[in-house]
Task: structure prediction
Amino acid sequence: MPHLPKKFCKTLTMLKFQKNDQIKITAGKDKGKAGKIDAVLGNGVIVGGLNLATRHQKSAGEGKPGGRIQIPKPIGFGKIALICPKCSKPTRISFLSEKGAAKVRICRKCKAKI
Result:
């Protein structure tokens, strides 16, 4: 296996953002828009329909036409905020770990478990 930079080698056991979380983008060209996380990568998240880049695709034969296609690019963790399911506000996340229990994500505004 080739050596990867440190930013791609994060352990994805308990991140602040998880798949299917509702988020709001706080910086960049899509600032203020909300969406659902499709995938969590080591360097950011992919949100369907947001942060799209245009790729010029060459035709790969008769069945696959070429043209300009829109592909989603990752958004950095620092440019998004989780929308709390209880209070419906963009919030930061803290963690609560009790003895013998799993680590739980907590909303910083309403103190609800996420």
